[in-house]
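Annex B, item 7. Sequence and structure tokens for protein A, then protein B.
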Amino acid sequence: MHRLTTAEAGRLGLAAPSYATVRAIVHALDPALVTLALEGPAAYRDRYELVFRHRAERPNVTWQADHTELDILITGASGTPTGPG
């Protein structure tokens, strides 16, 4: 990193920063931004988003259902409730 910085400073006609300066800047970078820059948005989302979001690759890959039990009243043809009892 220091060599690249020194080369770019030379190309721009600027004084090259010291190794310690480059090291301090690199260590001060936010790890989330480093992940985004080096590994891409998918890795960033996997590590740093607060809510996990499953992304389906195609329609109907993921189905979800509520498993709450419901009280069901069955009525006969006349509209009156039927059932055991």
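Protein B:
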Amino acid sequence: MIHKHGKPPEEVTSYRPISLLPVLSKMFERILLSRILPILNENQVIPKHQFGFRQQHSTIEQVHRVCEKIRSSFENKEYCSAVFLDIQAAFNKVWHKGLLYKIKAFLPHSFYLLLESYLTDRIFQVREDGELSHIHDIMAGVPQGSVLGPVLYTIYTADLPEAQGVTTATFADDTALLASNRDPTVASAILQNNLDKVTEWLQKWRIKASATISVHITFTLRKGNCEPVKMCDVTLPQCDTVRYLGMHLDKRLTWKKHIKAKRDELNMRFRNIYWLMARNSKLSIDNKLLIYRMILMTIWTYGLQLWGSACDSSLNIIQRMQNGILRTIANAPWFVTNTEIHKAMNMRTVAEEIRLTGIKYRTRLENHPNALATALTNISYIKRLKRHDIQRVGDRW
């Protein structure tokens, strides 16, 4: 049992179980998965808005879809009413009878019999500090750490209700619903209508979403917020920022909150390994640079394709962080410029990293198997953007 960071240690839900499954079982699952995936793809069982556990799909493309919906609302002077749902213990609470019902509907009967045997009569035992618990039956959920588990979950949630005028974005159990309109009341009404259907669907299939932890946010460049929305007669809390798939989205999509969070995380991580990268460290500069690229640089480069469009003052925050770290690694005197240090270490600046990452990302989108991701390359609403922003978009792509 692995303790979740920041959770109270006295609660059972604060621990994440790491499953140890039989190797033969994993081999069988992998063989079975190679037979199941072609059927799912041919029959288009998995909806296009589901980007989790699918080849050539990543979190960045899904966050990009959400951002493009928000930017489109900005362009049309609309209010974008959005809900980010928190699904509790999604993989652990999958209803076996409901899952088998959907397997029987989507897959041939022979697969149904195999998967019925696979899911039923499973048992588990917990080891903690060398002690073993009693053996218990598994009454719900997909096997943690299994090969088939993620695919079974996407099959179980494949019929999530959608509605016209509402953008649905899912990555595994992370679900976002967005609706836009010039009238904030109408935007929330459209969203509420779809949210009611989603709530009914969740109750039918015994999936629990927490209304108190879920977030409702209004993305707009105008004054005011959209009307509150409810789930199970509980009003969802309204916020000015939301964290979705590791990225912080504020109501005006300025990326200031996200960049500040990356700066703080980078500071904390750098302090933890400072003894390895300090001026008196015996490691070579090449090894220090390797540590920086593998541990520190990955913190701020995540989502660079999106937050790279932020204003220069925000981007300079990360650039100053990189300048300081590289000066520490090189033990450079004060009279050596940051430009010279970057060239000597063959390191790109943040602006150069944004440009190259954007070029690669566009190529990836153009060859993406999902039409929803490919459509992200068609930016046709830049008429209201300032000239500076138009140039930045051109540089990024």
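Comment on protein B: The longest helix spans residues 184-204.
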